[in-house]
Specification:
homodimer; BirA Bifunctional Protein, domain 2; five-stranded mixed beta barrel
């Protein structure tokens, strides 16, 4: 029988109509001679009523129905009795009196209920992902994701962008995260690499004159996993020729506005999206991805505290560091000494040595360090604007420690104090990034974005030397939403000599540069246009628009935190013949208890 | 400067307007004090005119311009002199008199001309793919491909389909082609596999209640390559719940019509798309993907020739084989004895032992075997409808040899005789396939489509035994266009017991079935809906709509026939440290001369 309607969309406008429905039994109540079944499909739930009066055979079928059976029915839409109306359902005013019914599939008892807000382990949810995805909140999450891509295709297709696929079996290149490798069967000892992004290919497509490229592209990074990372993830990837940074940002704004409208029906006011220079963002928020849904900006007290009686402050300034603070409004009485101790412990990870704080009371500043700051109290209150009842949290250290510490405390305390307007969509552009950043762990300079980022025009003379290059700033622009980096964009280098300077400043010899990127360098000698682009992270965007805090909630079949997929148990051992064909010797997998791998 | 127009789109409607253009120098003619430059962008070409009168500085810049330089100009659109009009260009009636100009990038001499129809090796084109893609025909090919996906997204998004991504790091499963493997760093000896299709995942998504899924999905097969195969390829993949085969075919028809309209502006008449049963297609055309742009159907002469004096025919019938023929209209005088000998040699690959033929002349049938057929001549001409001037080509052998032979000869001779209407788009559905087919090379029965294909309802009782199952037919339906298989679809098995019977008939033990597909079998116990779908091959569809004969022409960065990518030279050797991290031992790659690998 052909379905006439989705169950969840039937309402009183269908009264007296005969409908054919298919879906799952959400629940069943047998009142003896009268059976009610909640029928669920992807659009929601409708109540079915079975009785001898409505359909004798159908009643007999309903007696056999159990939760999660797949059924098909034909019936007539009728009003519910006044007392039986359910205002929480679109279909809550009606029921379908069933004339005929059929069971299409039976079902065992499911390992968890098919409903929102279940309290079961992620591992169980992933093992039975096809059941987990039946739950309305997961249906909604994946449909929001689908709407993002639909809006993206619609907007970009209508704005002259050409959807071009780039290879997934690509070349392993240095600079970046660890590659996933794919052994070649034909060339023993040779490997393809799964791409970490389509970056080089899209630049070559600009070199090929396509002018406007886009792709919803999978990317792969073999990194250590954490909550918002997956071995594979999806980029909404665009590239344009002959456009300035400002023109690209404007176009992306319109694209994002189209997404916001289609997914969450939000009218994004593009004119209100702020642009912060990177240095400004770092100074005011301690991070390059500030959450602008709330204030609590970092207050620079370095000058004020240079001669502080509190040695920690004075010493920090003397050592070339900073003293900064945030004001947590109304938090003086909220946080106990113990709470603050916990914060102090938390920020040790950033290198902070203790947490100085003050509470503002009617009596003035109080707390362990108050006695050292009596002479500064008036200036401190004036400069920070702290009011009675507020909590002041300080960081005094090198700039990077101060920034990380106060960024963390700002977000943590704002959340705890419910100072974040969860209904806001706070977009921001961060521009004028450093071209390089120093990596202390590896004691070397790496690209702040990637090695193909164009320096500022004014900084091009700096590129002649490695030391100069490390001081240059970049034509790059990141899009931030609610404290998350949504996307990272830049104008690209399109001239070989600048690209060579860039690679040289990264420590590449001429030969190493040729080996890794020779095809790109040569391409640039054949007339490459000025170009720029951006890639938005689809997983993160979907997570934010769905109001979730883990990207696994918006991916149909994600890997768990150990990189395995508990349903299929991938990765798995493979037949010896497969490895032999690849000329590979791999360790014996039998030493490892495969199913246990999947447990968290 | 912000571009105001694409060069190729300017025509006389822009007269006297000032335009800013960017693009590549297609060619340059210096007439001394007057320089003409053809400026090319992705939309086409416009003529620029430089002179002291129009712009003194611009003229000086134009003197430095060379082919493939990237330039930016501002100028005024003016009529060309009457004698200088070029009717082949949209912009052929106008030129842009340049006021100011700038060189954005210089270019070396390119290894081939940036123009259509170049005669250089595929290898050179792939090595400099970014130049090859500048050529208008390649621009057009990739834009047709982009229009197919745009039409697909638009149609499916508007018809309730949810775009859901499935993993590329998946599980290796038996039954199918060879997998590409991806070693796991975290689990030594374990491997992900790149998916050969999203088949199982999309079935699980139907089990999850999404009702309508689609994905533009990359798929991977490590097979030996040939003209229309690539290691990675793209499927337009859809799956639907609760729909019959007829309903699915109808929906796909509308989708394909939307694609045809958007890409080649063709109004596809859905009602005229024929549906052929598989057995009928095999009988009439000798193939399951008949080219219906022309007739020349296979004529079954088995009954007529059972008692033929020509021993080859009589023996074939006696041995349980067939005698069939095609009539090639007007070909009697076209093919020489030598041509026919070549055909005979060609069909040896199908097991054909010689090629019997007749020419129809005013004197009747002629040719080496004519003397054996004198008594049959009248019946033969009556049955085949052969006319004076026609050529009759025969095959007499087992059914599969006859089918392959006459399919090949039908296509070959029709092409040679120009009997194919190249303007036609001949779609057809092929239905009612066998569920299994016997694989003589491996001496075993394999799935004609894949192991998840639903048998015909009437054949379900056959599934109880292996022998019975091998006789069953399937609810499967392939879409054919101009003799190519565009897509392969089927209703899927949604009940565990049928799936177990299917795997058993393929030779899986219970344990092997559990190991490979346990998650799917278990899923089916939790209430899976009836479902079906199809995957259309994007590469092949784009190739056909672009009028090309190799899918490499519609892929931006394809692999060559040896599976390498000549531009980046992937696959390549990788750092030893990378292999060590993966716990892999691979053969020394240095034994192989890497650059040579890429040569054809």
């Amino acid at each position: 029988m052909k379905r006439t309607n989705y169950a969840g969309l039937i309402d009183e406008s269908y009264l007296e109509q005969t409908v054919t429905l298919q879906g799952w039994v959400q629940k069943r109540r047998d009142l003896g001679g009268l059976i009610f079944v909640d029928l669920r499909d992807r659009e929601g739930i409708v109540q079915l009523a079975f009785s001898a009066e409505f359909g004798q055979d159908a009643l007999a079928v309903a007696e056999k129905m159990r939760t999660e059976y797949v059924i098909e029915i034909e019936g007539v839409v009728k009003s519910r009795a006044a007392g039986a109306v359910n205002d929480h359902l679109k279909s809550g005013k009606i029921e379908v009196q069933v004339k005929s019914a059929q069971i299409l599939s039976e079902a065992k008892t499911t390992p968890f209920y098919i409903e929102d807000g279940i309290n079961v382990s992620d591992e169980l949810r992933l093992k039975y992902r096809y059941l987990d995805l039946r739950r309305p909140e997961m249906q909604k999450n994946l449909r929001i994701r689908s709407k993002i891509t639909a809006a993206t295709h619609e907007f970009l297709d209508n704005n002259g962008f050409i959807d071009i696929e780039t290879p997934y079996l690509a070349k392993s290149t240095p600079e970046g995260a660890r590659d996933y490798l794919v052994p070649s069967r034909v060339y023993p000892g040779a490997f393809y690499a799964l791409p970490q992004s389509p970056q080089l290919f899209k630049q070559l497509l600009m070199g090929a004159g396509f002018d406007r490229y886009y792709q919803v592209a999978r990317a792969f990074r073999d990194e250590d996993l954490r909550g918002d990372r997956q071995p594979e993830f999806t980029q909404l990837d665009v590239e344009m020729s002959f456009m300035s940074q400002a023109e690209i940002m404007d176009l992306v704004n319109h694209w994002v506005a189209a997404i916001m409208k289609k997914t969450v029906d939000f009218d994004l006011n593009i004119a209100e999206i702020p642009t912060l220079e990177w240095a400004d963002a770092m100074a005011r928020f301690g991070t390059d991805k500030p959450d602008l849904r709330f204030g609590m900006e970092l207050q620079d007290l370095t000058a004020l505290m240079a001669d502080s009686e509190f040695g920690v402050f004075a010493n920090a300034v003397q050592n070339g560091g900073q003293v900064k603070a945030i004001v947590v409004p109304g938090a003086a009485s909220h946080f106990s000494r113990k709470d603050i101790d916990k914060m102090a412990q938390y920020i040790e990870r950033f290198g902070a040595k203790g947490l100085a704080w003050l509470k503002i009371t009617d009596e003035g500043i109080t707390g362990p360090i108050a006695k050292f700051l009596t002479t500064k109290a008036a200036d401190l209150l004036a400069q920070t604007g702290a009011q009675t009842g507020d909590l002041l949290l300080f960081a005094a250290d090198q700039a990077s420690v101060v920034a990380q510490t106060l960024d963390a405390l700002r977000r943590m305390t704002a959340k705890e104090m419910k100072l974040i307007d969860e209904s806001k969509w706070a977009f921001a552009w961060i521009t004028n990034w450093p071209l390089f950043e120093y990596q202390p762990e590896e004691d070397r300079w790496i690209s702040a974005h990637h090695p193909f980022t164009m320096p500022n025009e004014a900084d091009l003379p700096l590129m002649a030397t490695t030391e100069g290059a490390h001081k240059a700033h970049a034509q790059s622009y990141d899009l931030v939403l609610n404290g998350y980096e949504l996307g990272s964009g830049s104008i690209r280098i399109h001239r070989m000599e600048i690209q060579e300077q860039m690679l040289s400043a990264l420590g590449f010899t001429k030969q190493a540069a040729q080996d890794a990127f020779g095809f790109l360098l040569e391409g640039m000698e054949f007339g490459f246009p000025p170009m720029g682009g951006i890639a938005l992270g689809l997983d993160r965007l979907a997570m934010l628009l769905a109001g979730r805090d883990n990207i696994r909630e918006v991916i149909a079949f994600p890997k768990n935190s150990k990189g395995t997929e508990p349903m299929t148990e991938a990765p798995t051992t493979v037949a010896k013949a497969q490895l032999a064909e690849l000329n590979l010797i791999a360790p014996a997998y039998s030493d490892i208890d495969a199913p246990n791998m999947a447990e968290e």
